Amino acid sequence: MTNKYILAISGNDIFSGGGLYADLATYTTNHLHGFLAVTCLTALTDKGFEVFATDDEVFDHQLNSLKDVPFSGIKLGLLPNVRLADKALEFVKEHKEIPIVLDPVLVCKEKHDVEVSALRDELLKFFPYVTIITPNLVEAELLTQMTIKTLDDMKVAAKRLVNLGAKHVVIKGGNRLSKEQAIDVFYDGKNYEVFETAVLDTNNIGAGCTFASSIASQLVLGKSAKEAVAVSKEFVYQAIRHSDKYGVKQNYDEK
């Protein structure tokens, strides 16, 4: 373990596949000392998979408790509402000199369109202060308000996100464009890089969280944004490929 400290501002995943569990596991794998500010709890209820936002005052206390920790990096995951996102933004502004990764989680089944729109507008405010954003295709569509069907569409969306203030963008295509290849597009405002790996037939959850927290870890360890994405793409691929060795996979329809 190094003396580098890295923060995850993210939510609890009751199934322990994504969210803060993925963040801490990834930090530990990279020999970094991970800290947490928890944004929400999750659970299966009679209404399905639900997200319960952390109380505003409690979230404030968490961030205030961490204000003097000399963080070398921050990863932001699920911010369940505008109030908590605004509090996280103020914390980010105070740490804008360090690498910061924003995974702009926007799609929750219990959110209404009005809530998603308000949260979208709030997340756009983060763009000038973070190093890289890591939306999946659906999140990229919501942020850019365009439809993404092809690799060229992904490149157009990445450019739009930079025009909206992002410094670097990686759009996670998953297997939506191809059933054989998982395609991601990185853009730094000048050049595009397309990353492809074979699609693996698994039921794992948390790959997006792991990808973002791995990028944050690699930035803290001195990699450039493009290098961090390349290393993290391979890291997630290998983690999924070998996941059967370390636990029982389960298919949760609610996820």
UniProtKB/TrEMBL annotation:
What EC number(s) has UniProt assigned to this enzyme? 2.7.1.35
According to its record, what are the GO cellular component terms?
A: cytosol
**Enzyme class per UniProt:** transferase
Extract the GO molecular function terms from the UniProt entry: ATP binding; hydroxymethylpyrimidine kinase activity; metal ion binding; phosphomethylpyrimidine kinase activity; pyridoxal kinase activity
State the superkingdom: Bacteria
Give the similarity note.
Belongs to the ThiD family.
By what name is this protein known? pyridoxal kinase
The species this protein was found in: Streptococcus ruminicola
